User: Fold these one by one.
Assistant:
Number 1:
Amino acid sequence: MGKTIAEKIFDNKKKDMPFDGTHVLKLDAVFCHEITTPIAITDLIARGKDRVFNPDKIKAVIDHVTPAKDSKTAEQGKILRDWARRHNIKDFFDIGKNGVCHALFPEKGFVRPGYTIIMGDSHTCTHGAFGAFAAGVGTTDLEVGILKGVCAFKTPKTKKFVLKGELPEGVYAKDVILYIIREISVNGATNMVMEFTGPLVEAMSMESRMTLCNMAIEAGGTSGICYPDQKTVDYLWPFIKDEYSSKEEALLKFQNLISDSDAEYEEVLEYDVSLLEPYVTFGYKPDQVKSVTAMQGTKIDQVYIGSCTNGRIEDLRIAAEILRGNKIHHLIRGIVSPATPDIYAQALDEGIIKIFMDAGFCVTNPTCGACLGMSNGVLASGEVAASTTNRNFNGRMGKGGMVHLMSPATAAASAITGEITNSSIYTSRVKGERE
Amino acid sequence: MKEFKGKVLFLDRSDINTDEIIPARYLTEITKIALKSYLLEDLTLDTFNPNQDINEKGVIITRANFGCGSSREHAPWALEVNNINVIIASSFARIFRQNIFNCGMCAIELSEEKIEHLFSRYSNKDTFLAVNVTDQIIEIEADGEKETIDLSISEYDSALVKAGGWVEYADKYY
């Protein structure tokens, strides 16, 4: 019987199997941020175990509320900062260098095919885009990860998604994942790895693959995962060029991880993406998804473009292309948060930031901020946001607020009209100008 | 080991998420006890009143996929500091379920039929429930009548509960 990529990673990283079906894995990386890590740190101190298993395998960032908004968030940042210094954690990212963890850590080359990664953050599944097993965990798992470099998981079951066909105009990775979550429900992949394969995934950039894997958790998935390929190697090459004699050698090694053709799956689902439309959520669950056409005309108060789902350069380019030469609706508050300083700098170089500003957007520093209603764009009760983030839970962006999840293209078009709008009216204009 | 018993709070809905259990705006707290008064503040459920209904409860019975969403262990902690150490549901989100056992608390899965039975028979009564982890049984009491239901906790989960949590367990073995 063949093995899935997740099963191969579990075999390679096995530390122990204390009980049937329980796998204790050796961790290649433990990622930390200032919301879930400080309580682990204070608990370790209280237990007299203020140690780290390996400072080089721990990466930390202040990203959820930065710069600090009040005394409490300042204290959280301080606990993380002091701890990183105390334990000589060199890869610690503070103000000026910090950004949204799931955009920043891949950009710094901290994720490799075959890695096992945990973080006290549910969207850790993002890093599966590189062919890693990456799972969100709670503070206790994080604490043990920091102290011992291990984490326990059940035998990984895998649901495979084979994505075929070409995306229609105005349809992006975000629309694909929203569609998949609608099809399988918020409980459709609980305790399972979501393996994304097929010609569409092969054609996708690493950024789009991250968007796809990022929302695996919204279907209950443990990790999203894509097969490592030439694009993975090209993305990582600056970080691995001293480890391999050539890109070919790296690719050959990484591709050993790819699932065997006779691997066993819980289910294999095949989708023809050429039939998809732009999608948007309604209600308070990420599987409550309708086509933008069906939701067309829904009034909004705020547009938010950013987050670990859609705050990368590709996302900003797509939104800027639609916003170029347009003003956002006078009743709309537009907020864009480039996910990392490098993305911000690149967007400046490419003139994207100017397009956003000319359109009437407020450009914030990189932070998770408004996505979970902690800072930088919290909604008032009764207000409605069009957002490129990942969760539309009740109160997510502020108590009593409503969040509609969508792609950066749909968010940009909606900012211009002041209501949920299909981006095609603007993209066809852009195309027309070029022709 | 913690105490696994108390009056039952029935939450008749599936997919109750972590943001409903404890909203993100309270994640700036750095002690568990500070979360106490915010438990289930944003729960979308008609007739539920967080100020009255949580009082003196020790057990929650609910439907499918309880605890979906965020990885925040603040969700189990908010329950723990309200002395709710047992959640019984037809299924749980993975991270939440693991967090519960990592804290030495109990997340018990019963079939949808059994959950339906518990709702139809007990949800409008003052119900008391106790979990015996060693013998793997649930005892339910209402209107002077007692019922016993078998439960199944894996060896690993049971080891975590008996050790008092994952830190204690891992410290002993790794």
Note: The CA atoms of residues 329 and 418 of chain A lie 5 Å apart.
Number 2:
Amino acid sequence: MRRRIGTIIGAAALVAAALFATVGHASSLSTGTQSLGAGKSAVAMCDTNGVTVLQVLTGNNVSSVTISGIAAACGGGSLSVTVNNGTANSTGIAAVPGGGGSMTVALASTVLMKDSDEIDVSITGP
Amino acid sequence: MRSMSRSQGLRVRRIPLGRTAFLVVIALWLATVAQPQAGSAAGLTVASGNLTVYRTCTLSGTIAASTAMVDSYVDQQNATTNNGAVGTMDAQTANNKNRRPYVRFDLTQCSPLIPSSATVHVSTLRLWVTAVPTTCRTENIYPATAAWTEGAITWNNQPFGTTINNPSSASRTDGVSIGGGVCTYTTAAQYVSWTVTTDVTKFVNGTMTNNGWMIRDDTEDANPTKTATFGSSDAVSIPHAPQLIVTYAT
């Protein structure tokens, strides 16, 4: 009888330990977010006044995109452009010329021009 | 036999106590080992190079089916005639024969919708020019001050009224030179661009109603007749469609 009681007490202690361990994990997650938030301020922009974006058409399709007015600070970086007409999209990536300025990025595939097209440009600085 | 029984009885009592003690120790150890993981996330760092992101919405008047833009022109010589279905638009100066194009793009067609808090960096209105005046002319663009419709606008009911050279040249949003001589755009079959960033910024943030724009010659009523002709959304091919290009950041 006592043997059984001892085993029950031991098992109960194990269960309690497991529960405490789980609570410990949850509380650890909340403390880490402060450092992640602080990291956000470190991301800077190499171009701050905008760029001019023009679609280049082949027939009725957008085949490439010309981006001009790129700041010199972006020179040597990488530029990604994505054209989305609501039903199809395509992306092109190219290196920003030294000194910035203007560049044309070819898309991986053409996208039909429609009444409304969205073009996303992201520049990862050098 | 009796002593054996006592001895076995003692063993029976010690074993469960020892096992219990062992299990309790393991439990305490597990609980202790689990705790040091608290705070480990604080060691995470985020490393990133500089990143610049812009989004551009391009609205195009892709032939008559376009839902993104409407356009027309008004003609002083035919003051009650609507030209909303005509394939071209004229900006013309001539004595009592002045003409003014009107265009409006529906910014709510942008997908995703441009948020009112967005910073509009560059906005350009482009029209495909099909004929240029023989001499260089300046074509001004103004935000329309009242609502109008493509199928009803005429010279007599246009938002700016029938007064010549109204509004003043000084109040224009932008002006471009088109025609022969020393001009920015000297030949036909190309896009002519006006910078309308200030107007689009106000349309987006809600400080001005989007009634589109009116284009007129900088000096109306000037003889002889000088005309710049643009393709409208009713006849142009898709590569020559009127366009409003808005580049912004959120």
Note: Chain B touches chain A through 63 residues (CB under 8 Å).
